[in-house]
Amino acid sequence: MNEPQPGPDQAAGPNQLPGPYLAPGPYAGGTAWPAGPPQPQPPPQPPPAAWPYPGPYSWGPPPRARWDVPPPPGTRYDRLSRTPLHRWWRPILGTAAIIAAFLALSILVGLVAFAVSLVTGVPMARTGARLFADPVLDLGFQLGVIALLLPLVLGAAWLIQRRPPGSLSSVALRLRWRWLGACLLVALLAVVLGQAVEAGMLMSAGVDPGFSWAGWEEFLPAIIVILLLVPFQSAAEEYAYRGWIIQGFGAYLRNPWPAILVGAAAFAASHGYTGWGIVYVFAFGMLMGWLAVRTGGLEAPIALHATNNIMAFGVVAASGDMGSAMEQGEVPWEALIGSAVQFAVFGVGVLIIARKWAIQTLSR
User: Fold this and answer.
1) Least confident piece of the model among 59-63, 205-209, 301-305
2) Which of 68, 79, 111, 150 could covalently link to 236 via disulfide, CB atoms 3.0 to 4.6 Å apart?
3) pLDDT tens per residue, range 81-104
4) Which residues, by range, are in coiled-coil regions (predicted)?
């Protein structure tokens, strides 16, 4: 009989791989592989990480720590200098540095004034605290010297206390311009009303309120200097007496009233008023310190201080008696009635608007 012939796979025998490289069992007749059994596959690799690719070496310098550290959230204005970097010696060293730098700059300004006198031929004054015989030029230098306090105080906060300079401005760590504008409007109303009441009280007592008109030729040069420099002079005093002093004491004390009291006393001592004039300046300092803490910043104090000084210097400029612009001394008690009206109108108006606008009073 004709037996069926074994195929090529059958002829190979049971113990011999069919074909050159085909495996038995489930691989029979399947895929060709190299000599030997299949090797285990390597585990899947994770996708490459996002740039920068991790490795033994870092790319670029490490991030630098911030020099100035802001106050923690929920801090009141008078406590803003108590940052995580606060040390007991920082406010003391900062105060000493401000005083020393201000004295050095005052001497430098005196030398500059002497040079200006030589170049322009304007004689220097030889009596009192005046620098120049020209009253307008003298007023400009006097206001400029006071304005130098502003960069000194801001610089001490950043360099010595290592906190943002804006922490002297407000709890928002900056000057809140919209709020400052609103305070300026209230200040203008308060100063005008107070001036009117003061003039009425003085005239009723037979005292000349000092209103006169010397002409545009006398008024224009003086009012230009006043408008340009008085805002910086007023702001510098507020940053020094209501900002630095109040926050300096606030670094140690939780109660703001000792700081407000010391700031007002220092403010009064730095002026040359006597008698009722001391009462006026001290009361002004107390109100400004309280409003700074109450509203969380210096916007309200700066607004009233600048508006009041511009009005006072403006009245003198209109009269043409600029030689007495920086003179301070006795103030009649009748003038305090107008000051009281000014303080009341401004304080109540500012508090009403601050409550209506929900002005920020704590740091965030």
Assistant:
1) 59-63
2) 150
3) 999 999 999 999 999 999 999 999
4) none
List beta partners, residue 242: none
Of 306, 292, 296, the C-alpha closest to 347 is 292
Using alpha carbons, select from 320, 287, 323 the residue that is nearest to residue 305. Answer: 287
Output the six-digit token pair for 122. 């304007």
Instruction: Round to whole Å and give the CA distance between 1 and 212.
Output: 150
DSSP classification of residue 73: T
Q: Tell me, what DSSP letter sits at residue 65? A: P
Q: Rounded to 5 degrees, what are φ and ψ at 330?
A: -75, 140
Distance CA 247, CA 235 (A): 16
Pick from 199, 226, 227, 225: nearest CA to 212? 199
Please report, for the chain, the start and end positions of each structural domain, with discontinuous segments joined by +. Answer: 77-357
| CA pair distance 338, 193, nearest whole angstrom | 8
The CA-to-CA distance between both ends of the chain, in Å, stands at 106
What contacts 74, CB < 8 A, 6 or more positions away? Answer: 362, 363, 364
The mean pLDDT value for 61-90 works out to 92
